[in-house]
Amino acid sequence: MNLLEIKNLHASIGDTKILHGIDLTINRGEVHAIMGPNGSGKSTLSYVLSGRDGYEVTEGEILLDGESVLEMEADERARAGMFLAFQYPVELPGVTGMSFLRAAVNARRREAGEDEVDQLEFVKLVRAAAADLGVDNEMLKRAVNVGFSGGEKKRYEILQMALLKPSLAVLDETDSGLDVDALKIVSDGVNAQRGDDCGMLVITHYQRLLSHIVPDFVHILAGGRIIKSGDKSLALEVEENGYAGLVNAA
Amino acid sequence: MVATTETIAAVEDATGAYKYGFVTDIETEKAPKGLNEDIIAFISAKKNEPEWMLEWRLKAYRHWLKMDSPDWAKLNIPEIDYQDVYYYAAPKSAEGPKSLDEVDPELLATYEKLGIPLNEQKMLAGVAVDAVFDSVSVATTFREELAKSGVIFCPISEAIREYPELIKKYMGSVVPVADNYFSALNSAVFTDGSFVYIPKGVRCPMELSTYFRINEKNTGQFERTLIIAEDNSYVSYLEGCTAPQRDENQLHAAVVELVAMEDAEIKYSTVQNWYPGDETGKGGIYNFVTKRGICRGDRAKISWTQVETGSAITWKYPSCILKGRDSVGEFYSVAVTNGAQQADTGTKMIHLGEGSRSTIISKGISAGKSQNTYRGLVEVHKPAEGARNFTQCDSLLVGDKCGAHTVPYIVSRNPSGKIEHEATTSRISEDQLFYCLQRGMDEEESVSLIVNGFCKEVMKELPMEFAVEAQKLIGISLEGSVG
User: Fold this and answer.
1) Which of B435, B452, B456 has the highest number of chain A CBs within 10 A, making it the mutation to test binding with A?
2) B264 in any annotated domain
3) DSSP strand pairing (A16-26 vs A4-13)
4) Fewer Cβ atoms within 10 A, N terminus or C terminus of chain B?
5) Is the dihedral of CA B192, B64, B87, B58 positive or negative?
6) Residue B482 within a domain
7) A10-48 burial, b if ≥16 CB within 10 A, otherwise e?
8) By CA distance, what is A53's nearest residue in B?
9) What residues of chain B lie within 8 A of the CB of A92, using their CB?
10) Where in the sequence is the domain holding A154, given as residue range(s)?
11) How many CB atoms are located within 10 Å of the residue A236 CB?
C-alpha cells in the first residue's frame, strides 16, 4: 500500500486559495523533494498535511496508509506516524528538551497501548541518539529552542524525528539557517533514518540540501501545483537555470 | 498529595470533573448555625480552652463587629451571610487527642482517598502530616519521632492547653487580631490548625504538612497555624486543601503566622485545591486568608511558595516583615484560574532591617472567563539601609474571555533601597500549541506542558514530593480551557 497519497488537493487560508490541485504519491523507503520558488505553496503543503488549524482543504484527499486523515486533528495525525520538522522550530520557555521528548514519546506509546517509557532507560536512549547528532546533554536541559542557535534548533528537530520514528517525515526548509558544517550533521542525521520503514518529503528552496540528502524523486511546485516531476537531475537543472524557465514553460 | 496514579486517572478523565468532590458520610457534631458570643464560648469550651483564650476570642469578635469587609480587591464578592454558617463541625468520633489506632476508619479512608494515607508505614518517608477535618485535627503523624529532636508538631487546640506561654507570646504577634476583617473573624472562631515549634539549632528532620478538608455542608473552616523557628533552626512546611463539591459556597478564612528568629529559615508551601465551583462559580470555596511571617532575627529567612488552583474566590497575600538585619523574604506563586474563578493574590514585603532582601516571582494563568490579579506591596522603611527587592510578575492568558491584572504598590522611604519590577503578559501562541500537537501530545497535555514551563521557576521551589503532583494539578485545572 502507498504510504502517502495526495489526490487533487486544493487548500486555502481564509479566502486565499494556495494549493490548486496537487497529486503526489510516496511509498515507504522513498525520498521525495519538493522544490519551488517563494510563495509557491511549499510550507502550506506541509501544514495542510500535518493538520494545522486555519488551513482548509477545499477539495481532494490525503491518505496515510490508505486512511483519510482529513478528519483527524494534528495530534492524531502525528500519532498515526506523521512528523513535521519545522522550518522555524518554536520556543517553549521552561519546558526542558528532555521532558518534551519524553512527553512526545509517551503520547505515542499510550496510543499504541504501551507503557510509558522508563525514565532512566529513556535518558540513556536519548543521550545515545543525541550524541550522533552532536546534541550535548546541556542542550537537553535547556528549554526547548530557547536561545538555541539555528543549527541547534535543526539538530533538535532531527533528534525528535530519530526518537519518534515516523513513517512519514516532512522536512520543511531544514537547510535554512544552517552553515555548511551544520548542514552536513543534520543531513547525516536524516540519512541515517532513511530506510524501508520511512518515507520522506523534503521541502527546500535550494538544491544544496539535496546534494546531502539525495532524493529519489524531485517535484517542482509553483503557483500551488506540481508543474514538473523527475529524478535528482531535475534539482540540478533548477540550480543551473533557476525556476523562471520552468514556471514560464508550465 | 501523593496519589500519583489516581491523579493520572483524573487527568485522563475527559470530563474534567473535580476529583475531590466526594462527601464523607460521617456523624458530625455541630454548633448551631450563626455567630454570637455564645457560639464562641461553645467553641472555646469544646476545645477545653483556658479562660484567657476565650477572652482573646471575644475581644476579636467585638472588633470584628465594628469592621467592614474589605472592598479594594478586584473581586466580585457576593454578600456573605455570616449568620448562615456553621462555625463548628466535628466528626463525633474525633473528640480529644488520639493515637492513630483510634482514629475512625471512615476518616482514615477519606484521607486515603485524597491521597494522604495517615498510616505511618504507608506514608512518604520524611513527611509528617496533621489532618484537619472541618473544625478539628483528626490525626497528627510522626509526633514521637519529631519529639526526639525537640520539634513540637501538634494541633493548635492542643498547643493552647499544653504550651500556653508560647501561644500567649506569639499568637497574634504577627497578624494582630484586628489586622483585617477576616483575621478578626478567624481570631474569634478559629477551630483548629497546626502548631510547630523548632528549638534552637534544630533542623527539622522531616517535611511537616497539614491537610485541610472541609466536609460538612455550610461549614466554614477557620484554621490557625503558628510556626516558630528559634535561632539557627530550619523547617519546611506544606499545606494542602480540598473540599467536596457543593451547591452552596463555603467560607474559608485562615490565619497563618510565622516567626523566624536569628539565622532561622522557614519554608512554607501551599498547594491549594479547594473546590472552584461550577462554570458559573456556584458552590466554590471563598478563600480569605491572612498569611504573614516575620523575620525577627538577623539573617532570618522566610520563603512562601504557593500553587493556587482552586476556590471560587481567592483573597490572599502571604507576606514577610523583614525586621532582622540582612533578613530575606521570598514569594513564589502560581495562581491558575479557569471557569468563573476570581483570584486577587500577591504579597507584601515590608523592609525594616538593614540589608534586607526580597524576591517576588508571580505567575498568573487565566483561562475561561476567570479574572486573575496580582497585587503586591514592596515597602522600604527608613532604617532599611541598602534594602533590595526584585519582583517579576508574569501573566499568561488562555483564550480571550479571561483577564489578567497586575497591581504593584512600591513605597521607598530610604534612598539607598533598590527595587526592581518586571512584568509581562503573554498568550499561549498558536505556534507553540501546534508544535506540541504535531509531536503527538493532545491539546490538554500541550497546554499543561506549556503552562508548566511558564511556571517552572516557581514549581522548582516546591518540595520534590509535591512538585509532580502540583504539575498534574495545573493540568487538571486547565482542562477544557482551549478549543
Assistant:
1) B435
2) yes
3) antiparallel
4) C
5) positive
6) no
7) bbbeeeeebbeebebebebebbbbbbbbeebbbbbbbbb
8) B434
9) 432, 435-436, 449-450, 453
10) 4-249
11) 14
Which residue, chain included where needed, has cell 517553549?
A92
Cell of B260: 523566624
Per-residue confidence (pLDDT) for residue B133, from 0 to 100: 66
Question: DSSP code of A77?
Answer: H
- Confirm or reject contact between B443 and chain A (CB < 8 A): yes
- Provide the grid cell at B440: 503527538
| Band of pLDDT at residue B224, cut at 50, 70 and 90 | very high
Predicted local confidence at residue B245, as pLDDT:
60
pLDDT for position B433: 94
Quick check: A103 and B449 CB within 8 A? yes
- Tell me the residue range of the domain where B148 lies: 4-477
Whether the CB of A112 is below 8 Å from some CB of chain B: the reply is: no
Chain A residues within an 8 Å CB radius of B392: none
Q: Is B120 exposed, middle or buried (0-12, 13-18, 19+ CB in 10 A)?
A: middle
* Residue A89: CATH number of its domain: 3.40.50.300
State the amino acid at position B50 in one-letter form. Answer: P
Which of the four pLDDT bands, split at 50, 70 and 90, describes residue B121? Answer: very low
Considering only CB atoms, A94 lies closest to which of B429, B438, B456, namely B456
> Measuring CA to CA, how many Å separate A29 from each of A50, A173, A230, A246, B98?
20, 20, 17, 28, 71
Neighbours of B231 (CB within 10 A): 17
Whether B445 shows a pLDDT value over 70: the answer reads: yes
Split into its structural domains, chain A has a count of 1
> Total structural domains in chain B?
1
CB contact under 8 A, B446 and A75: yes
Q: How many CB atoms lie within 10 A of CB B191?
A: 27
Mutation target among A90, A141, A163 for the B interface, most CBs of B within 10 A: A90
Task: Identify the pLDDT of residue B125.
Answer: 47
A89 touches chain B (CB under 8 A): yes
Closest residue, chain B, to A146 (C-alpha): B453
What mean pLDDT is reported for chain B?
A: 84
CA distance A212 to B38: 87
**Chain A neighbors of B439, CB-CB under 8 A:** 78, 100, 103-104, 107, 160, 164
Task: Give, in order, the Cα–Cα distances in Å from B41 to each of A47, B167, B218.
Answer: 70, 19, 20
C-alpha cell recorded at residue A115? 507503557
A160 to B439: CB separation less than 8 angstroms, yes or no: yes
Residue with cell 475527559: B14
Is residue B483 domain-resident?
no
Taking each continuous run of H as one helix and of E as one strand, the counts in chain A are 9, 12
CB-closest option in A54, A75, A99 to B442: A75
**C-alpha torsion A180→A186→A189→A191, nearest 10:** -70
pLDDT tens for the 250 residues of chain A, in order: 899 999 999 999 999 999 999 999 999 999 999 999 888 999 999 999 999 999 999 999 999 999 999 999 999 999 999 999 999 999 999 999 999 999 999 999 999 999 999 888 999 999 999 988 888 888 899 999 999 988 899 999 999 999 999 999 999 999 888 888 889 989 999 999 999 999 999 999 888 899 999 999 999 999 999 999 999 999 988 888 888 878 777 6
* Yes or no, beta carbons of A100 and B439 under 8 Å apart: yes
In chain B, positions 107-126, which contact chain A (CB-CB < 8 Å)?
none
DSSP character for B192? B
Q: Do the Cβ atoms of B454 and A107 come within 8 Å?
A: no
